[in-house]
């Protein structure tokens, strides 16, 4: 009997399995079919000409650079924040949690507008920034700002969950042994929450890589400076479907490779 | 669980509340339909939103049995919708390319499209003019922050053509110097306007009709000999459900009354 036949038989042997499999197939179809269609439609003789064009490569380079910096920023500042939100109790904490969750539900274009009216040249804090000689809009730094604003909350959420799942008794035991807060974090909390932190940074990194709305408003669109892959894809639509399709596929492939590598690292570290 | 139920009830109430308005609007529409029903569907380029809304109201006053329904979107999107089977009575495009595509698709008769207005480019500046731009020559000043539509967008293409034309006035390296000042190639005119309105860009290039819609901005005209004229064609597609009323509407747009409205919104009339 073929492997497929055995598989089908096994499915049929327990009827209730279908209650899990059918809904899953619906969702998997919704997630997978568009990606397949994208690749199917993009595969043509012009694919490599579009995908390897200097402007596509420059957009890819910029996307990888900015999303990595954004993720590093999110981790550097988000880990302490997540720790505070998970372990400390203080007045106004729930307001802070709401603030951190908001960018996740905010439409990215609203986020971009908010960044512009806050940190733009004529924004609320514009005069202070220009006194320091800083002008953010239309710079690569603005791309990082936009990505971090939109994506960092995902890291904070995940890290917070990781830290709060750790048994309170461990913390008390560590303090009883004379550990200080830093030692507790380094030797107990960080190793135990490691997986949540990694998951959070992957989420943040992929969200930053796909960021579009906040970037086009706050940073604008200039090749080599602020034109990331998602912007290049959107602008590509003006030139023709082929360009946009090819760039989309490149972004999908790069994301798959990087996610694969990270998951592999994750597994290796576990074993 | 109790909270979850409360949240669902809250959302349900919101949905019902939001549903109220369309229901009452539908009642209104039914009332008009009882006195000779006739709906004219007009697909019009997004830049025509203000002007055509006004023209539509005036047309409804002079033709009480007609209710004009607009769908405003990018010309490219509207063209795609017609190709995919949408059957409007009228298609008004912001460029000839989309109309020509429909003609070659056989969806618009070759002799149907008529130019009803033209649009030209202007330079817009933030109200406080931070870079102190007084003439077009100032656009070449190093360090100026200029925002244009991307070169793949019609408006961006026209802008670059205008800069080339201005080389004849300001010297052969003028356009190169100006393009070196570009800090962002925007995907559409709306984004160019936003960045000038918020004072982030020192100058931007938009259509005259866009500048009229943003009265708080300063405008710097581009002399006609150097400007590029964008022609707006209008036509009733082959499958138009009410071709006669469509012809009446197009005639109204081309009439002195219709052209006056178009001019008010910054377009250049073809029948002044």
Write structural notes for this entry.
The complex is a heterodimer of chains A (271) and B (272). Chain A is mainly alpha-helical. Helices cover 80% and strands 0% of the residues of chain A. In chain A, helix 8 (140-164) crosses helix 10 and helix 12 packs antiparallel against helix 13 (241-270). By secondary structure, chain B is an alpha/beta fold. In chain B, strand 1 (39-45), helix 2 (49-62) and strand 2 form a beta-alpha-beta unit. Mean pLDDT of chain B is 86; it is low at 20-34. Chains A and B meet through helix 12 of A and strand 6 and helix 7 of B.
Q: In terms of topology, how is this protein built?
A:
The complex is a heterodimer of chains A (271) and B (272).
Chain A: H1 3-13, H2 17-42, H3 47-51, H4 54-87, H5 93-105, H6 108-119, H7 126-131, H8 140-164, H9 168-176, H10 181-210, H11 213-218, H12 229-239, H13 241-270
Chain B: H1 2-34, E1 39-45, H2 49-62, E2 67-73, H3 75-83, E3 90-92, H4 96-105, E4 114-125, E5 146-149, H5 154-170, H6 174-180, E6 182-186, H7 189-197, E7 203-207, H8 208-213, E8 218-221, E9 229-235, H9 243-254, H10 256-264, E10 268-269
Parallel strand pairs in B: 1-2, 1-3, 5-6, 5-7
Antiparallel strand pairs in B: 3-9, 4-7, 4-8, 4-9, 4-10
Helix pairs in contact in B: 2-10, 3-4, 5-6
CATH architecture of the largest domain in chain B: 3-Layer(aba) Sandwich
Count of beta strands of chain A: 0
The total count of helices of chain A amounts to: 13
CATH class of the largest domain in chain B: Alpha Beta
Amino- and carboxy-terminal Cα gap of chain A = 35 Å
How large is the share of residues in beta strands of chain A? Answer: under 5%
- Total separate domains of chain B: 3
User: What is the CATH C level class of the largest domain in chain A, in words?
Assistant: Mainly Alpha
Order of helices and strands of chain A: HHHHHHHHHHHHH
Summarize model confidence as the mean pLDDT of chain A. 88
What is the residue-averaged pLDDT of chain B? 86
**Outline of chain B, from the CA principal axes?**
globular
- Which secondary-structure class do the elements of chain A indicate? mainly alpha
The quaternary organization reads as: heterodimer
CATH 2nd-level architecture of the largest domain in chain A? Orthogonal Bundle
